[in-house]
Structure formats: C-alpha cells, structure tokens
Amino acid sequence: MKQDSIVLVASVTVMRDDSVLLIKENKPTARNKWNFPSGRIERGEEIFQAALREVKEETGLAVKLMSTTGVYQFQSNTNDQVILFHFMAEVVGGELSFSEEEIIEGKWFRINELSRLEKDELREPTVLTQIINNVVNGKTHTIDLFHN
Fold first, then answer.
1. pLDDT of residue 3
2. What percent of the chain has pLDDT over 90?
C-alpha cells in the first residue's frame, strides 16, 4: 500500500522512578519493535490531549506531561512524512494493562538500558535513537513552548 500523507503523532516517554515504559505494538509495520506509547493526533484534537489519550489507550495509565524532548520529522516505513511531538510524563494514576489486539508487550527499562537497545529492535530507529539520546542525557524543554 502506497501512502504519501503527512501524519502528526504524539509520543510519550512514561517515567516511573528511574525507569521508562516501552511497548511493542501488534501492527504489521511494527510487530516486535519497541516504541514509546504514541499515536496519531486526531483532527481537531489538541497535541497535549492526544498524548494523554494515547498513553491511556495503550497502557491504561494516566500521566501528567512534564516536558518535551522536541519535535521530530522523518519518513516512516510506510512512506508517510511524520511530524512527531515527543513528551516526558510521570504516572499519576491508572493501572498498567494492555489490549492484546494492539499491544504485544510492555516493559519498564531503566534509563541507562535504553542506549543498549539495538536499532533493529526499534520501530523507527533513526528518530527513536534521537529521542532515547535526549532522554538519557536529560535534554528536555519546558512544555510551555507549545501554545494553544
């Protein structure tokens, strides 16, 4: 299937103590690949709301957005141009649970373990490596950069 669209994505590093939650999605283009909870921003949806919704849908957790590692642009493996807004968040409620139809597995990784993940284990290796480097090195920015 040929796709040539522009896709807006909200992505979130969910933090708990010194650990980060990664998930493996159950999609043909992402099966057995680690990713941060993330998904498309729906038409008319605010970026922050999309980020909170995606985390809740994919993990069962309620989070509070704390900061951002930035905005990333890349060509996806489905030939879409993706503009990804990535946030850092902490857990404020909910219970970790996964829909087996959408998520194969979830795992808490210590921050220092993230850099050891192999590129072929990541959904979109180029952009995820950039995000992981920013998370590991504490390169974050205030979310006040975003305006409604």
1. 54
2. 72
